[in-house]
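quick one before i forget lol
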Amino acid sequence: MTLAEADPSAREPDVPGGDARPRAPARQDDAKPAAQGQQKRRKTHRKGGARAEAAAGAAGIAAADTDTAETEAEEQGPTRTCLLTRARGPKERMIRFVAGPDGAVHPDLAARLPGRGMWLSARADVLDKAAARRVFSRAARAELAVPADLSRRVAEGLVRRLIDLIALARRAGQAVFGFEAVREWIAAGRAGLLVEAADGAAEGRAKLLAAAHAVSGAGVPVVAPLPAALLGRPFGREHVVHVALAPGRLAGQIAAEAARLEGFAPGGGIVASADGTE
């Protein structure tokens, strides 16, 4: 019995001028085009997914570049943001830190070391909290070692900077010391900043301030960041209580450093000398 006889539906429709013929069974080769089409669709899908992943990666890189650009723009501006408090202020009144090649945090008081700067407000309590909360490691996106005495190191560094700046002003003829010399500068209108010993007698300071008010009416700015023993070092003396500085860049720098040191030694209560000894 033939296929046509067994299954009449397998007989092809009548064709004019021809007899009904049995339908040929599907060959295996006929399935190849369909399989090839499915493979092409899979490849296209994979390519599309790869393109999407590449686009997402490019978007992530672009976002990271944007963050870096914003950080660099902030580094170039006149103000900085404290990593802990988020308060903004002049960079001269804040402390910059960098990650050293040894994987530790280092203060950069002159703000000149290479690398991304990490800025904090010039206060000992801010530094201590930042160390406890791993603020430096999060900012650097790497685990950093924070010295246990970081606040002390910063305070000692600021003391050294103050001594060096006052010594520079003395060599430039922009600083005098001693009660009488300071009072003469005040009377002549030459004093732009008074630096008083933190442990000096209040009476002598009051007299100089009164003299400054009598001359200008507005008085003269006064800072008291160092004890007499340290204030005497720039002048080669054991103790100096009164110093007058001429107006200008050096006086401004000394006032800024004194303000930064105030956050670590309020009222000039220095806990260590410039060479690190008690």
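fyi The longest helix spans residues 32-76.
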